[in-house]
Design a protein that fits this description.
With 396 residues, the chain is of the alpha/beta class. It folds into two domains: 17-182 and 245-308 and 357-393, P-loop containing nucleotide triphosphate hydrolases (Rossmann fold, 3-Layer(aba) Sandwich); 313-346, no CATH class. The chain has 15 helices and ten strands. It has an eight-stranded mixed beta sheet with strand order 5-6-4-7-3-8-9-10, with helices on both faces. It has a two-stranded antiparallel sheet with strand order 1-2.
């Protein structure tokens, strides 16, 4: 696997045999220019991304965090009323570190429009942007969001390099397995535009393709009767117009794909200590390895806090049973027995989660891991993000 090696620190008391992810070493490394957080839905990717970005900024990095999460929780936690396609400064950061933090949210259609405007002449761009098929493609076509996420990441990196602004980009990806669809998006869009149906729409009316075009004319004639002549005309106009600029799309996507494989990029897989989430995490790890993407490690969020004391679950349940049998019963016996049962449930939950992490570590022994305990309340502000960042970094 290419890219930076996992930063390994001393084993945490709650850890398994997996090496420990040294988050601060990752954030402080000037060679780390991009961090991509991926994982299944509901595991805390947005919070993790924001916490990492905030901690990096407060340690002196110039950071922009890009979210593709439609829930817009990132804006709320960072005190910004609305995020859009333009990076906006996050208020409330201390200035003594010399770092900075901007946040933005992917506007899929606006990013697509920007690509068209940059690749085509004004007249050609206007023709594409006003075409009904382009409007549908840029708004809802499967894979467009992931493709545009790659495009926006590439734009940010190019602009930052030219202007000397950001030295770290943190990307929060969509939920579930679609979080890795941006790796496939250029190929899928290429397949669509290079597909047989689209190629036939572009085929000339004479020359070697004449017979094919003549046969296709029968098909388009039939479709025109069903869908209307304007439908076919709009589709042909759209395909012909977009075909003139798609070479630029493909080249830029290939550049961004190479950027994701470069040593300055680090992927973090985010999971919860649950069977389904860790199975998804295993999928991400294996897929990243297959595509030679630089994996920095695994973040396990919302782990059950490890309790203190030596009372096992079985011992707690036995003590609770003894209290129920004691005659005469103490007035506090029911409460004490209930607390003992709660303790037993918590110990068993910690044991289950530990077993799940051990299984993951056994299957992926080289993946450095950080475990973040569950908090009593949700994170809605910078203070909460600082707490998460501290927990990510403190794996002792």
């Amino acid at each position: 696997m290419t890219g930076p090696h996992p930063r390994v620190g001393p084993l945490a008391s709650h850890s398994t045999s997996a090496p420990v992810l040294d988050v601060d070493a990752l954030l402080d490394d000037p060679q780390t220019g991009i961090i991509v957080c991926c994982g299944s839905g509901g595991v805390g990717k947005t919070t993790t991304s924001a916490a990492l970005a905030l901690r990096a900024a407060e340690r002196g990095r110039e950071v922009v965090v890009l979210t593709i999460d439609p829930a817009r929780r990132l804006a709320q936690s960072m005190g910004i009323e609305l995020l859009d396609n333009t990076p906006r400064p996050v208020p409330g950061l201390p200035t003594e570190s010399g770092g900075s933090l901007d946040a933005m949210m992917l506007d899929m259609k606006r990013t697509f429009d920007e690509v068209v405007e940059s690749q085509a002449s004004p007249d050609k761009a206007k023709q594409i942007l006003e075409n009904p098929f382009y409007i549908a493609l840029s708004s809802s076509f499967a894979g467009t969001q992931e493709y545009m996420a790659m495009e926006k990441l590439g734009q940010l990196q190019r602009d930052a390099r030219m202007a000397g602004t950001y030295d770290l980009i943190v990307v929060d990806t969509p939920p579930s397995r679609s979080a890795l669809d941006f790796l496939d998006a250029p190929e899928r869009l290429s397949s669509f535009l290079d597909g047989r149906f689209v190629r036939m729409l572009l085929a000339p009316a004479r020359g070697p393709a004449r017979l094919m075009s003549a046969g296709f004319g029968m098909v388009t004639g039939a479709l025109s009767k069903i869908l209307g002549g304007q439908f076919i005309s709009d589709l042909q106009t759209f395909v012909a117009a977009l075909d003139t600029v798609f070479g630029g799309f493909r080249a830029r996507a290939q550049q961004t794909y190479a950027l994701l494989q470069a040593p300055g990029t680090a992927f973090l897989v985010v999971a919860a200590p649950e069977p389904d989430a860790l199975r998804e995490a295993a999928y991400f790890v294996e897929r990243l390895s297959e595509d030679r993407m630089p994996l920095a490690g695994l973040v396990v969020n919302r782990a059950s806090p490890v309790g203190h004391g030596d009372l096992s679950a079985d011992e707690a349940m036995a003590a609770a049973a003894r209290l129920r049998r004691t005659k005469p019963a103490s007035p506090t016996a029911p409460l004490t027995a209930g607390l003992l049962r709660l303790h037993a449930d918590r110990v068993r939950m910690v044991e289950r989660e530990t077993v799940l992490r051990q299984r993951f570590a056994a299957a992926h022994p080289a993946v450095a891991t950080a475990v973040v305990p569950a908090l009593a309340a949700d994170v809605h502000d910078l203070s909460g993000l600082r707490v998460i960042g501290g927990l990510l970094a403190d794996q002792s």
